[in-house]
Design a protein that fits this description.
The protein is of the alpha/beta class. The chain has one domain: TIM Barrel, CATH 3.20.20.70. The chain is about 40% helix and about 15% strand. It is built from 11 helices and 10 strands. The strands form 2 sheets. Strands 1-4-5-6-7-8-9-10 form an 8-stranded mixed beta sheet. A two-stranded antiparallel sheet has the order 2-3. Helix 7 links the parallel strand 7 and strand 8. The protein starts with 17 loop residues before the first strand and ends with a helix.
Length: about 290
């Protein structure tokens, strides 16, 4: 059976995916806002354990319907290339209709991965990375303790593109507070434009327990943007995005507004919708806090 250890996390778009924990925790685990793996010591699971779980899953009814697999936990890409290639080979042999394998990818794991290694893994099936950009503003990135600046984020993403890997990226609305809100949006758009990811999504920065951000919030040091301010920041981001064919989503549970489209085709429509929200906030379809789980 699948022996998940601790809380299991996956991107919203992997809701229908089969998930295997090939690593536990996150090898970096320093981001100020992230509490997903604070209770886990990072380690790579033994290959024999993972193989046993793949064999078990392949023997279950419905295994022939498996088309997507997500490799957890937070930093599977940091594992050795040979280890990941063995797992990908096992997955291909076990699930004949498998179309995609994906994982979270920290900037740190992408730093140590060569383009050749990424290409080998992509050819073996690991074709999509989820990369948390969070912000393109260096001051904001430093506050978030991402461990890299914007230029390095662009550089490591370029390695993945060179290897033919699809990138799904995330931006944290509200991460710059009020003073840096619009600069954060513009700089994040600049970085996205340089990376040209296939997918761009937004989340609202939300303090969670057991994180440095939570502690800062308890001391009153975190500014919480209201829905109008978040809508203005989202509009600024969209206005400056110059993407050549990307799916844009602002529909994570943390978002105060739900917008979606394909860029650049739908950018003017999305910006116009946000203009309408800003012109008539009382009639805006804001998602209430209770529905957002906040």
């Amino acid at each position: 059976m699948l022996r998940y250890q601790g809380t299991l996390y996956r991107p919203p778009s992997e809701a229908a995916s089969l998930i295997f924990q090939v690593t536990l925790g996150c090898s970096y685990n320093e981001c100020a806002f992230c509490g997903m793996y604070r209770d886990k010591r990072f380690r790579v699971r033994p290959l024999a354990e993972v193989r046993e779980e793949i064999t078990w899953a392949a023997s279950q009814p419905g295994a022939e319907t498996v088309r997507k697999v997500f490799l957890a936990d937070g930093d599977a890409l940091i594992a050795k290339t040979g280890f990941l290639l063995d797992i990908l080979e096992e997955l291909r042999a076990s699930f004949p209709n498998l179309r995609r394998v994906s994982c979270y990818a920290s900037p740190q794991s992408m730093q140590v991965r060569s383009v050749d290694d990424m290409r080998l893994l992509r050819e073996a099936g690991l074709s999509l990375y989820y990369l948390g950009i969070e912000s393109g503003h260096d001051t904001v990135l430093e506050r978030l303790v991402k461990g890299v600046d914007a230029a390095e984020m662009v550089r490591v993403a370029g390695k993945a593109h060179e290897a033919g890997v699809v990138l799904s990226t995330m931006i944290l609305l509200g991460a710059g507070g009020r003073a840096l809100s619009l600069e954060h949006a513009r700089e994040s758009a600049r970085v996205c434009n340089a990376i040209q990811p296939r997918f761009v999504s937004t989340l609202v920065m939300t303090p969670v327990e057991s994180t440095p951000l939570w502690e800062q919030d308890q001391r009153g040091e975190v500014e919480h943007l209201n829905p109008i301010e978040l809508a203005r920041e989202l509009r600024e981001l969209l206005l400056h995005l110059e993407l050549e064919g990307s799916v844009f989503r602002s529909n994570h549970a943390s978002n105060t507004l739900t917008v979606a489209g394909t860029l650049p085709k739908d950018r003017d429509r999305l910006v116009a919708a946000l203009d309408g929200v800003l012109a008539n906030p009382d009639g805006a379809p804001f998602v209430p806090d209770w529905l957002r789980g906040l």
